[in-house]
Amino acid sequence: MNNLFSVKDKIVFISGGSRGIGEMIAAGFLANGAKVYISSRKAEACDATAQRLQQEYGGTCVSIPADLSTLPGIEAAVAAFSAKEEKLDVLINNAGASWGAPLEEFPELGWDKVMDVNVKGVFFLTQKMLPRLEAAATAEDPSRVINVGSIDGIKTPAFDTFSYGPSKAAVHHLTRNLAAHLTRRNIICNAIAPGPFPTWMLSTGVGGGGDTDIDWDAIGQHNPRGRVGTPEDIAGLAIFLSSRAGAYTVGEVITCDGGAVACS
């Protein structure tokens, strides 16, 4: 029963790791002794976050900027990672996009961009990382794939983001599909469905214009727990799924939402 939640010395790759939920998860793994690679489209932001996280939490945090909505971008990121590491213990598919517009005005671009980032990117990054995941996997300590979905893929979204909810529902089902194919290869796949967290994406939906320095306490009052999520909430769940404690949990979509789905 010792070290049930240890992720010490594990190698972790987090897409969309330069801000928001991805940054929170990266901080949690670094603080608990893992070596973390983060990737995002904007190189300057990705580099700055990696440097800041490493200074704050110690350990090693490496930036691999890439556009993970395209196959060439995914292949470039995997090649950069593979040049540094022979194995990957934990892949966290967190990169995500959203688009808001009224139903009658919702554009094709808002559909294609969201589906490319949220669904296509998850599948092909997992596919291209399989050799590294298999290199780390054993029956006693499987490699892990954690896909970040959303409660909007479970219940009707509050905003006019018509491609976002369907894309996250697809991520949830893709998680079960991947689990069916990978579990016997000692790669465990699960998904997390976050609710409200203090992120750039949620800020754009609640009128903050992307500013994360807003009154999150007021926004959290609409949640059954009376608050928005914290880094400890989301990182704790990701660490559970990546540790010995989560080694028998397979193909699940676990909400991390303060009761938003259960109480709706």
UniProtKB/TrEMBL annotation:
Coiled-coil region(s): none
InterPro entries: NAD(P)-bd_dom_sf (IPR036291), SDR_fam (IPR002347), Sec_Metab_Biosynth_SDR (IPR052178)
Keyword list, A-Z: NADP, Oxidoreductase
Domain of life of the organism encoding this protein: Bacteria
Pfam family, one: adh_short_C2
Family statement drawn from the similarity comment of this UniProt entry: Belongs to the short-chain dehydrogenases/reductases (SDR) family.
Official protein name in the record: SDR family oxidoreductase
The species this protein was found in: Candidatus Litorirhabdus singularis
